[in-house]
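This part of the workshop introduces the protein records we will be handling. As an example, a complete record with its sequence and its structure tokens follows.
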Amino acid sequence: MHKHDLVYLTEDASHDAAIEHINEEAFGPGRHTRAAARIREQGPHDLSLSFICADDGETIASVRMTPVVAGAVKGHLLGPLAVRPSHKSRGIGRELVRIAVEAARRKGSEAVILIGDPPYYCPLGFEKVAYNALTFPGPVDPGRVLVVPLADDTHTRLKGTIGWRK
């Protein structure tokens, strides 16, 4: 039996090609048309809060964090989160989310926001954002807008437009 040597690392430019391949494999060519992608194309993601998982030196999963302002909240948009099919259902995605949220907390982020599946993300500390509280640059199912509030009044201030911030 092969022993997997999983290592979690901060993303750097050397991971770009592998991350692009993983995201293509996971989400296909339509991923660039989604509302979250519209935000991500407004400016770069935060490399210091973006992570990969490597197995024996091969990048097999990644998560990126993009700085956003959401209403009156200065936070981060989590995603894309993707794991190679060969490594799914091993907790790698959950660990990447945990690492990224904790790094955002340490950096002073007020919230980690994403558009995702509540049954997957809510056990990881995410909560539903008030219905239609945030306006995205494209259609979004309001029931899939989730947040880990990192400040006491995050939910109160999560009202308005969401977009990239410096």
